[in-house]
């Protein structure tokens, strides 16, 4: 597969634009709050574009094409559609998240349940961030290596440097602005491949003639159990995921947070079918002998989309598509970096390492933490050891297993106690690990179910058996003057 300078040129220009946006956004940063939550000034459309781009990453682009080409067939669209369902549910919670006026999820736990809960939550939230960032670097490097012929390690390095550069410069302002640009690239780039693929294959009927009927099933490939598990996993994970709720913390008010959830859900429904359909078309091309499937057989189905693009699209469109795919992965990576920097600085460094740190020192520490996480994620990505979606699912589930219920219910239930929260955090997270590793079978259930069940029982029972510290004011939502709209 030869190197196409037009394609490379388009992608290099795109990467340069991302860094330029980061530089421009850095001029808006006056203090730590500007860096972490964009001064709490974001309206619904900016928030929606950022939310959409953040959660649509390697798993939702390359991963869905891979699953559609493989065992899931067309039902792979549920991987993204389940996100749309999750954001509709989140729309009811979003105003309360904004009302709390915190910068991070662990900060909420500290104020609601005490410092020990905040510290444990910070550790639980930090661990998946490295893995989640590495997943996106893996996906980005896959695209660059197929496109340019560069080594995989070099491709990971290039993407890591670009993402770290614009994220560290502009913080939330940079991440939101680049997310909006990236979302337009994602939609346009992924959609463009469909008409060209159909034309290359001689039309829909001829192209799909050898695609078995079962691959068109809307449910069978994924299965009802997996679909339900995805919805539960997303609701639980997005609600406590720093990379998602940090957007809600950045909203100008509760109404903007709620409307952003609606908009995000709508665009996910539109996008969900695109990568699933592309995966089916790719399968048809390989079956018809239009594309040599040897590289897919040798390297794995995650190469399906890059291979298909190079084969069927004009150079300019290939460049746009690759920029779109890199957009999908980089937007998620930058959000995870900012989340990691925010949590470590706000919830570990400031309260435990340097309590009297100045605002300038905190801002510097956020940036240094982001650079460190970039390095760790790069090291993990170079080994390229895990299936994209499997790693995403485990990372999502780990942080959601124990934190979801204390976080959400804590906004509404006055009786919730610090001890109940701590018990939920620990037992829920341990259950995820035990179920994921098969140490305890839990009747074959997806790990998120036993984790939430154990977490719920522990949270409810222990909260009823213990008392709430009088100094923790609960039902005022941490901010009695803020209005939920």
From TrEMBL:
<keyword id="KW-0472">Membrane</keyword>
<keyword id="KW-0813">Transport</keyword>
<dbReference type="Pfam" id="PF00474">
    <property type="entry name" value="SSF"/>
</dbReference>
<protein>
    <submittedName>
        <fullName>Solute:Na+ symporter, SSS family</fullName>
    </submittedName>
</protein>
<keyword id="KW-1133">Transmembrane helix</keyword>
<dbReference type="GO" id="GO:0005886">
    <property type="term" value="C:plasma membrane"/>
</dbReference>
<dbReference type="InterPro" id="IPR038377">
    <property type="entry name" value="Na/Glc_symporter_sf"/>
</dbReference>
<feature type="transmembrane region" description="Helical">
    <location>
        <begin position="365"/>
        <end position="383"/>
    </location>
</feature>
<dbReference type="InterPro" id="IPR018212">
    <property type="entry name" value="Na/solute_symporter_CS"/>
</dbReference>
<feature type="transmembrane region" description="Helical">
    <location>
        <begin position="416"/>
        <end position="435"/>
    </location>
</feature>
<feature type="transmembrane region" description="Helical">
    <location>
        <begin position="180"/>
        <end position="198"/>
    </location>
</feature>
<keyword id="KW-0812">Transmembrane</keyword>
<feature type="transmembrane region" description="Helical">
    <location>
        <begin position="6"/>
        <end position="25"/>
    </location>
</feature>
<dbReference type="GO" id="GO:0022857">
    <property type="term" value="F:transmembrane transporter activity"/>
</dbReference>
<feature type="transmembrane region" description="Helical">
    <location>
        <begin position="218"/>
        <end position="241"/>
    </location>
</feature>
<feature type="transmembrane region" description="Helical">
    <location>
        <begin position="76"/>
        <end position="97"/>
    </location>
</feature>
<feature type="transmembrane region" description="Helical">
    <location>
        <begin position="262"/>
        <end position="283"/>
    </location>
</feature>
<feature type="transmembrane region" description="Helical">
    <location>
        <begin position="303"/>
        <end position="326"/>
    </location>
</feature>
<keyword id="KW-1003">Cell membrane</keyword>
<dbReference type="InterPro" id="IPR001734">
    <property type="entry name" value="Na/solute_symporter"/>
</dbReference>
<feature type="transmembrane region" description="Helical">
    <location>
        <begin position="45"/>
        <end position="64"/>
    </location>
</feature>
<feature type="transmembrane region" description="Helical">
    <location>
        <begin position="150"/>
        <end position="168"/>
    </location>
</feature>
<feature type="transmembrane region" description="Helical">
    <location>
        <begin position="447"/>
        <end position="465"/>
    </location>
</feature>
<comment type="similarity">
    <text>Belongs to the sodium:solute symporter (SSF) (TC 2.A.21) family.</text>
</comment>
<dbReference type="GO" id="GO:0046942">
    <property type="term" value="P:carboxylic acid transport"/>
</dbReference>
<feature type="transmembrane region" description="Helical">
    <location>
        <begin position="118"/>
        <end position="144"/>
    </location>
</feature>
<dbReference type="InterPro" id="IPR050277">
    <property type="entry name" value="Sodium:Solute_Symporter"/>
</dbReference>
């Amino acid at each position: 597969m030869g190197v196409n300078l037009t394609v490379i040129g388009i992608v290099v220009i795109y990467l340069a634009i991302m860094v330029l946006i980061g530089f421009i956004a850095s001029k808006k940063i006056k203090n730590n709050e500007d860096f972490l939550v964009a001064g709490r000034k974001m309206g619904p459309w900016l928030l929606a574009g950022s939310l959409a781009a953040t959660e649509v990453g390697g798993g939702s682009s390359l991963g869905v094409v891979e699953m559609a080409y493989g065992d899931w067939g067309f039902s792979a669209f549920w991987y993204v559609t389940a996100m749309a369902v999750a954001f509709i549910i989140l729309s009811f919670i979003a105003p309360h998240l904004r009302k709390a006026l915190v910068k991070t999820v662990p900060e909420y736990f500290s104020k609601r349940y005490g410092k020990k809960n905040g510290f444990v939550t910070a550790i639980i939230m930090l661990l998946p961030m490295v893995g989640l960032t590495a997943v996106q670097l893996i996906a980005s490097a896959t695209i660059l290596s197929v496109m340019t012929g560069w080594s995989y390690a070099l491709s990971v390095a290039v993407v890591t440097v670009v993402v770290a550069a614009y994220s560290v410069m502009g913080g939330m302002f940079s991440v939101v602005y680049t997310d909006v640009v990236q979302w337009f690239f994602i939609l346009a780039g992924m959609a463009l491949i469909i008409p060209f693929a159909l034309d290359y294959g001689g039309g829909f009927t001829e192209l799909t003639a050898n695609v078995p009927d079962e691959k068109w099933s809307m449910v069978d490939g994924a299965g009802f159990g997996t679909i339900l598990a995805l919805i539960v996993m997303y609701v639980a994970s997005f609600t406590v995921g720093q990379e998602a709720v940090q957007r809600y913390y950045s909203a100008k008010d509760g109404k903007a947070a709620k409307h952003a959830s609606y908009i995000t859900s709508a665009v996910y429904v539109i996008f969900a079918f695109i990568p699933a359909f592309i995966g089916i078309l790719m399968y048809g091309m390989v079956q018809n002998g239009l594309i040599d499937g040897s590289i897919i057989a040798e390297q794995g189905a995650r190469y399906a989309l890059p291979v298909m693009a190079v084969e069927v699209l004009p150079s300019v469109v290939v460049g746009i598509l690759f920029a779109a795919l890199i957009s999908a992965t980089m937007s998620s990576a930058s959000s995870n970096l900012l989340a990691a920097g925010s949590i470590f600085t706000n919830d570990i460094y400031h309260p435990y390492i340097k309590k009297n740190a100045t605002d300038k020192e905190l801002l510097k520490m956020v940036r240094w933490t982001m650079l460190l996480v970039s390095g760790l994620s790069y090291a993990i990505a170079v080994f390229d050891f895990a299936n994209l979606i499997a790693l995403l699912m485990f990372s999502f589930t780990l942080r959601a297993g124990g934190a979801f219920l204390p976080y959400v219910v804590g906004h509404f239930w006055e009786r919730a106690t610090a001890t109940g929260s701590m018990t939920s955090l620990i037992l829920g997270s341990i259950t995820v690990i035990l179920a994921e590793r098969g140490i305890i079978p839990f009747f074959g259930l997806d790990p998120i179910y036993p984790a939430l069940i154990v977490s719920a029982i522990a949270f409810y029972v222990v909260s009823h058996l213990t008392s709430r510290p009088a100094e923790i004011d609960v039902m005022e939502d941490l901010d009695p003057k803020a209005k939920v709209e």
